[in-house]
Amino acid sequence: MNSGLVIVDKPAGWTSHDVVARMRRIAGTRRVGHAGTLDPMATGVLVVGVEKATRLLGHLALTEKGYDGTIRLGQATNTDDAEGEITATASAAGVTDAAVAAGIAALTGPIEQVPPQVSAIKVNGERAYKSARKGEEVALKARPVTVSRFEVTAVRRDGDLLDLDVSIACSSGTYIRALARDLGASLGTGGHLTALRRTRVGPYGLARARTLEQHAAALELLPIGDAVAAAFPRRQVDEDDARKVRHGGRLRAAGLGPGPVGVFGPDGALLSLVEERDGVARPLAVFV
């Protein structure tokens, strides 16, 4: 089996683990993983790695992501999305466009975000969602995230409810559910997410994504070298440096960091992924 990335358009109702299990059957290998979990309710781009490309997934998961979603103001839920139970209601009929804009502005840029109670964050060795299922409320610490774009693309009013269609770009680790929760809290109405579609993971967008059925009919595999070149800066080395890289050696930094850099040999073949720090390029993963 060749190594590479598979860009999946995840269907609603499937967990990311469900997609990986299906892709193992399609690709005929157990060495399959994904870069960045999507909740079952969400659809859209899920980057799946096959064979050696699984070494890229942890680095791709740290890239910026894009989402389109719908936030409902006027209701809060215990999961911060539509899959949970409504826990509080407060009319959003009097919420103005200016108030929404101010609330969104406060949630844009570098912020501190508390993850949802129903999340995979570990507290004292246990996933937060497992504690939530037991009726226990755990103290989750706020984490720094960056929301580089948070735009309202449509507004719909229905009595006490206010639905906002939004387009968001954010750093790894950002919970869109938490943005909906915090926007509703700041406006005094409560809020939760009713729809979510991931439109991009790093350079990989919906235009490249295919459904599982399409991949089952004809697996579309992005070669690992092309995947690295699309996602990270590219560094071409001569044969002497290529020999060092093949044996896990270090190179002098080329000023392409601070993130991962793809190193390619004189023949254009991918050799490794390195990280530049303190004037040295250290290997993160070697592919030969």
UniProtKB/TrEMBL annotation:
Keyword line: Isomerase, tRNA processing
Occurrences of domain Pseudouridine synthase II N-terminal (ranges): 24-176
Keyword Oxidoreductase: no
Pfam families: TruB_C, TruB_C_2, TruB_N
InterPro entries: PsdUridine_synth_cat_dom_sf, PsdUridine_synth_N, PUA-like_sf, PUA_sf, tRNA_psdUridine_synth_fam2_C, tRNA_psdUridine_synth_TruB, TruB_C
Function: Responsible for synthesis of pseudouridine from uracil-55 in the psi GC loop of transfer RNAs.
Protein name, per record: tRNA pseudouridine synthase B
Natural source organism: Actinomadura parmotrematis
Phylogenetic placement of the source organism: Bacteria, Bacillati, Actinomycetota, Actinomycetes, Streptosporangiales
